[in-house]
Queue: 2 jobs
Job 1
Amino acid sequence: MPKRVDHGERRALIADALMRVAAEHGLEAVSLRHVAAEAGVSPGMVQHYFRTKDEMMTFALAVVREHSEARVTRAAAALGDHPAPRTLLRTMLVELLPLDEARRADGRVALAFLAYTAVRPSVAAALHQGTAALLDFLARQIRAAQATRPIDQRVDPDRAAVGLLAVMEGLGIYLLGGHYPAETALAALDSHLDLICGPVVDEAP
Amino acid sequence: MPKRVDHGERRALIADALMRVAAEHGLEAVSLRHVAAEAGVSPGMVQHYFRTKDEMMTFALAVVREHSEARVTRAAAALGDHPAPRTLLRTMLVELLPLDEARRADGRVALAFLAYTAVRPSVAAALHQGTAALLDFLARQIRAAQATRPIDQRVDPDRAAVGLLAVMEGLGIYLLGGHYPAETALAALDSHLDLICGPVVDEAP
DNA sequence: GCTTTTACAATGCAGCCGCAATGTAAAAGC
DNA sequence: GCTTTTACATTGCGGCTGCATTGTAAAAGC
């Protein structure tokens, strides 16, 4: 029976269990035995697929990143072929906000890993590239959204992209902490988009 | 020799050691023995002043909050009696950004506690009040800063306050992660303030 | 068919954990 | 001066940790 198992699949299964543990009790509750129990497998198996705990953590971090990437890609694809830039921006950012329990769980895990990587800079380096790519994409959409504005009302798209991503991150964190309700965060996000792109315009012909 | 010791002082001493450990190795490295060693005292003494680890953590969390509160209060006071609202806003927010090693350390600890409270909602409740007060203050300053703008260019101050605080938080996190340099964050912050308050005006008579 | 490799499971171990219990010495209160 | 209280230091215990080791059974390769 051995031999023909998909390693990546097993690792993903274990990483999923890890994320469930982390979402509920925090990363410090993540141990080989806890994760194994959550995944319904033996601790030995976890050790078989990850030689060290650190290897498992690094893999799980990558999975978290891919999760949110997949989420935003899917949401963007659902908008069809040529969505208005502002609509696309809003859709992507809202998708990353912890607005339902699934995204709250993901958010808690992401936050835990944020703190985790803050004291392990070498692990964090892999994330920089993703951030840079995202910023680049945001800046391009902002530029497109600004096309209809008078030139003197346009903000520097690169700076605006940094600000916009920061707003999303910050709103997400305050939402996770339950500091204010979802509507407050959404209203602030829309206000911010108004400032950057100009107010929404009806696009009917 | 016993009997005349300031309990609060000792607890602060221990909490400081805790924060040093947390800043360097993360909250999961915080143990009674580690903290005691960092503080240069016996583990027994730590136990004497905090009956449980949770009590110690809660106390340290409060200290973190007070630290940043004191920091921003001091920075604001240094501006004199009637600073321009926009100057006050910028000074306060910049003070909260992790721009030097001291603030980076504080930031790492704050981030760790953010993740910590995310899975312990009861502990987090105490922070909501502080956020609400800060938002209120920011909104008032934004309102004042907008006084010179044409009415149709004014943003809702309450929404703007939420967005502004979120921007600061987000920028701080990306700075801690080393995703971009300080100048990028500062430029984005200034751009954002431009959007909310209008560009800087020279105040010379 | 026999060997090798793979996929686990089980056990064990040294080290750290929070915490309780106990001991001790000095100041405070009477 | 004697008792009580306070301020620690020390020790120990049960439990959990990551990880190395060993065992076992089944498929793959020849």
Note: Chain B touches chain A through 51 residues (CB under 8 Å).
Job 2
Amino acid sequence: MSQTVDRALSILPLLAEGPADLGRVADRLGVHKSTALRLLRTLHEHGFVYRQSDQRYRLGARLIALAQEAMENLDVREIAHPHLVRLNEQCGHTVHLAVYEEDEVLYIDKVESRYPVRMYSRIGKPVAITVAAVAKLLLADLPENERRAVVEKLDYPLYTARSTPHAEAFLKELAKVREQGWATDLGGHEESINCVAAPIRGADGRVVAAMSVSAPNVVVTADELLTLLPLVRRTADAISGEYSGRTPVHHADPLHHPEKETP
Amino acid sequence: MSQTVDRALSILPLLAEGPADLGRVADRLGVHKSTALRLLRTLHEHGFVYRQSDQRYRLGARLIALAQEAMENLDVREIAHPHLVRLNEQCGHTVHLAVYEEDEVLYIDKVESRYPVRMYSRIGKPVAITVAAVAKLLLADLPENERRAVVEKLDYPLYTARSTPHAEAFLKELAKVREQGWATDLGGHEESINCVAAPIRGADGRVVAAMSVSAPNVVVTADELLTLLPLVRRTADAISGEYSGRTPVHHADPLHHPEKETP
DNA sequence: CTGGTGCGTTGCAATATCTGCAACGTCCAT
DNA sequence: ATGGACGTTGCAGATATTGCAACGCACCAG
């Protein structure tokens, strides 16, 4: 809508790929060098880009600080975190928390597996929306028409032989997930990795987030992982209760929540 | 330099404080509502802001994803991380990694203490630059004139009775730190918290990052913490060696480094 | 039911703002 | 020296951005 801003913002993902010099930025943007320079300058003033010693531009610190603030404001995350940690302590596997936002599902928290073999994922990174267990739960809860619209728009990459192949199959899967109130991903994203997931609901019953436990075949079989389902669901329910204000917040470890700012 | 971009970017920190509606954004920016609307729309298209169900705007997901990418590109961080973890396993306390960037020092990695009492800090958050041990190391290594310029510009908040009171004292402290090659913060930020820090150097000998171990008095005394100094320095040196390419990268646990993307 | 208030949204005309150009400075390698 | 690559600046023209005023809509109170 606003050309100047549009161009300026386009610079950021570009720099995320790695440092770039002025000429490169200008080229990729399709504008004159002087224009790119002025945009970069503005970004720089706000701390969004940083000019390293070799004169090339990198993403700046303020960006990181902002994102961190953004995450702290997500109150589901804050409430859920101790529960995720506890769950991880109980089962040892990687625990994820994800939310849906504008056609994307993204991880907003993660507790690493205690086993040496870990799965690759990244907080803030959009998840493989057509196969991830958490994505299924989040999409399954969208209103009928919106869900349909989103599902139709998606691509269906065949990560493995068990990936969801197309919209139709996905809709069917979502219906099932919606029905049973939990979801799995059995090797749909990476051949050897399985997940079990459960929804976290707000006071009105709508799914606000989803959590999952993931483990590679070499550690536990899919069947063994499924035995954790009740535990995962209980954890998710506990978070739901706390998030929607039904459960009096119970602090297993009150020192876990330090004061914001001043001592 | 560019008014439009400038205004657009100013919206982000504003939203970081919490969700805001159009009117509020327009007011704070000092522009007409329609102008604010168009800026927000552009930010929205890029995923930097998100419109929640009550129509108010929040910081968006792309911001988080970008910041995460930005951090992954910091290669000091990547190299240092396993070392930080190992150090944490050895001593049990909170370990921080920080870099200097444009008049600020900020944490770019953190491994939490295993003790229940933890210190409050946040990745991406600028540190208390006048007192933090890591900040001293990073500033101490700046070229004379630049260091002086920065130090003069700073505020010297008295967090505690032992905080650095003014520029003069700070310069003196920096000289000492520069001399000895390590730094401490003994209750300068929070009465009951002490830190020991050591520098990480690039191939040219310049300090590229600094790491610290922090622990509250209730867990270990300052003297006890100081006994960790040799260990901290060895760790920092190990990171330096690897970062500057002198040391052949040695994998204590090769499975620690998952492949990027595809399996 | 109705009038009012608060909010987001749109079309428009005026102009302030941004753009691309061309020229300059600097650094580096040939 | 000399050429090229790169970042930087002043300028005039063009275009994108702005604020206004009017509209639509939802919500609330009388």
Note: The longest strand of chain A covers residues 207-216.
